[in-house]
Design brief:
Elements: H1 2-15, H2 22-36, H3 41-54, H4 59-74, H5 84-100, H6 112-124, H7 132-135, H8 161-175, H9 195-213, H10 219-231, E1 234-236, H11 240-245, E2 257-260, E3 266-269, H12 271-277, H13 285-290, E4 294-296, E5 302-307, H14 314-326, E6 328-330, H15 336-345, H16 349-355, E7 385-388, E8 408-411, H17 413-419, H18 421-429, E9 438-440, H19 445-457, H20 467-470, H21 474-494, H22 499-511, H23 516-528, H24 532-542, H25 546-552, H26 560-575
Parallel strand pairs: 2-5, 7-9
Antiparallel strand pairs: 1-6, 2-3, 4-5, 7-8
The chain binds zinc ion (4 copies).
């Protein structure tokens, strides 16, 4: 592999007049980049050393060739389309150069940052789009996509490789830029964006990147986007659930933790969230539960008190808490240092890496905001509410002293009320139920399990449509489908924003590959709950089988209204050319 990187410098040299075909360049340069970005320090060091040894042939002259080629390719009028392949090879070469040795304050000469920003924007608007299989012919003969339950998945660098290499280039140029405004090139005392340019730059480019983070990109591009944003003080992975949780930070009603600072200040927090997202801030759970550290505060509520070390800066701690609760925090240039120190101490790896301007390593994961750890057995201890399903099944609970034998989940009020107005009102109402430790949720176990996942991760768990689904019996498929109908129905009463839509799309996609028996049962079940959109989806999925289902007597369960819907849909289906079958 290391020899390969030497060969690559050869490739780069020969390709400086761009004579080599993209078929040769892409795989060779990709191999080199994988080594330059290797999580293994030795490989990474050797690769960049060998590469920089070979680079003097090329030197700054080559860099200028690349940059002017990129510039002329991106500044042409919108009407003519981009030469995407040329942009791609230029970007890959550029990435090799900037990764093998630092180029400080490049923007003094040309403005590569503007050029790369334009390319990235065009990629995000899909005007430039190249997939690996378009470039390298050998991939056409290889296996692509997914094979049943064995999912080969997407490459880490994502579908659009131009986007990825553009981001790598931009991150590295920005990272080695210091004390110059990237917009107006003015010299600065701190940071890389002057006061005058900040607003415009934020609205223009940074917002585009932030929006891209909520798109479905793969880990590679997402990591680089997050790391680029962090250079401008926007650190973390913003998410909808994280946004909701930000109000938990100021919610003192349910706070059961006081962090005491050496200057006498105290900050309220929630053990459930801290222990799931930033456990290093707390003494060990055993020690916390076993000791008398739980004391009554002045209102008679019992809280844990934890004394912080006197080296902990209170502003930095507030930033760390914000990140812990929401997964995202803005860190200004003036406060980077103490926040970075504390993030490292707290083992908040993604945040610490961003604040240290570290290079994302090939194949490392982009961490989403997620609270599901809080449901794990140890953290159960901080649970203050039990959600019990409507079910006669038995379930053994692994939570120490718990005696409940029906299916249930040990949950946390703080998390529940952020996504559910009904529960928020219930807990505040002072009604008999609001003091109970157990809430009976009008859902079967399947549905409750999915709902809890939604509360803690912000997404309904999806069922993969592969042989595992196809091998389920009709009954098992039906119970999955019915769970979505139950959720959709509960969403109306509990004001669960987005659950109705997510359930519908999940059920619709499953219906396409469900057995007709499961689908017919589901139609009856959903109609019973008044979930008509689901009924329609179910009817659409089996309508083409109508005559066969009718003759086999499977439709006896359905009432006249549903049969009518089915007949109408069948007629529509036959008239649109499906009748020949
Ligand atoms: Zn191959
Ligand atoms: Zn399979
Ligand atoms: Zn400026
Ligand atoms: Zn239990």
């Amino acid at each position: 592999l290391l020899v390969c990187s030497l060969l690559a410098t050869d490739v780069m040299r020969k390709s400086s007049p761009m004579t080599l075909s993209k078929d040769v360049q892409e795989p060779a340069l990709r191999a080199v980049l994988m080594m330059l970005l290797s999580p293994n320090g030795y490989i990474q060091y050797e690769a960049s050393f060998k590469l920089s040894e070979g680079l003097p042939y090329l030197g700054d002259g080559y860099l200028n060739v690349l940059l002017s080629s990129l510039e002329s390719n991106t500044t042409r009028s919108v009407a003519t389309s981009f030469d995407s392949f040329k942009i791609m090879t230029n970007l890959m070469n550029l990435a090799c150069l900037v990764l093998s040795r630092p180029y400080h304050n490049l923007l003094n000469k040309r403005n590569p940052i503007d050029v790369l920003s334009i390319i990235i924007k065009e990629c995000l608007h899909n005007n430039i789009h190249i997939t690996r299989s378009k470039v390298t012919s050998h991939l056409h003969f290889c296996f692509e996509g997914s094979s049943c339950c064995c999912y080969l998945g997407e490459e880490w660098e994502g579908e659009n490789i131009v986007l990825y290499y553009g981001l790598v280039g931009l991150f590295n140029l920005l990272r080695s830029t210091t004390l110059v405004c990237v917009q107006c090139k003015r010299k600065l005392d701190v940071g890389i964006l002057c006061h005058d340019c900040r607003d415009q730059y934020t609205e223009d480019f940074l917002i585009v990147l932030q929006r891209a983070l909520s798109q479905s990109l793969s880990s590679g591009p997402k990591l680089y986007i997050a790391h680029i944003l962090s250079l401008f003080g926007l650190c973390g992975s913003p998410s909808k659930l994280g946004g909701k949780m930000s109000s938990a930070l100021d919610n003192n009603d349910l706070a059961d933790l006081e962090l005491l600072l050496s200057d006498g200040e105290s900050i309220n927090a929630h053990t459930a969230i801290i222990s799931a997202r930033c456990p290093k801030l707390l003494p060990s759970v055993k020690c916390l539960l076993g000791s008398d550290e739980k004391v009554k505060d002045e209102w008679g509520k019992s809280v844990y008190r934890v004394q912080m070390s006197d080296r902990v800066d209170s502003h930095a701690l507030k930033k760390i808490l914000e990140y812990t609760y929401t997964g995202f925090v803005m860190v200004g240039d003036d406060i980077v240092k103490p926040v970075r120190t504390l993030a490292k101490y707290c083992h908040l790896k993604p945040l610490a890496e961003m604040l240290q301007k570290e290079q994302p390593r090939w194949n490392s994961d982009y961490t989403r905001y997620d609270l599901t750890v809080a449901l794990g057995p140890v953290e159960h201890s901080f649970s203050d509410i039990i959600l019990e399903a409507q079910s006669n099944e038995e379930m053994k609970c692994d939570h120490g002293p718990c005696q409940l034998s029906t299916p249930h989940v040990h949950s946390h009020k703080t998390v529940l009320i952020m996504s559910c107005d009904y529960l928020r009102a219930l807990f505040r109402s002072g009604m008999h139920e609001s003091f109970s430790d157990v809430i009976r949720v009008p859902l079967g176990w399947q549905a409750l399990d999915k709902l809890v996942h939604w509360f803690y991760s912000g997404e309904l768990p999806s069922v993969a449509l592969d042989c595992r689904w196809n091998n389920l019996s009709s009954d098992e498929q039906r119970s999955h489908l019915n769970a979505y109908a139950e959720l959709s129905s509960l969403a109306e009463f509990w004001f669960l924003e987005g659950v109705k839509e997510e359930s519908l799309s999940a059920a619709s996609s499953l219906l396409g590959s469900s057995t007709s028996a499961a689908a017919v049962e589901f139609v009856a079940f959903a109609a019973n709950l008044g979930q008509w959109e689901m009924v329609e989806a179910g009817v659409r999925s089996v309508a083409h089988l109508y005559p066969r289902l009718r003759d086999s007597g499977r439709l006896e369960r359905l009432d006249e209204e549903l049969l009518n819907m089915l007949r109408t849909e069948y007629v529509r289906y036959s008239q649109h050319g499906g009748g020949g079958n």
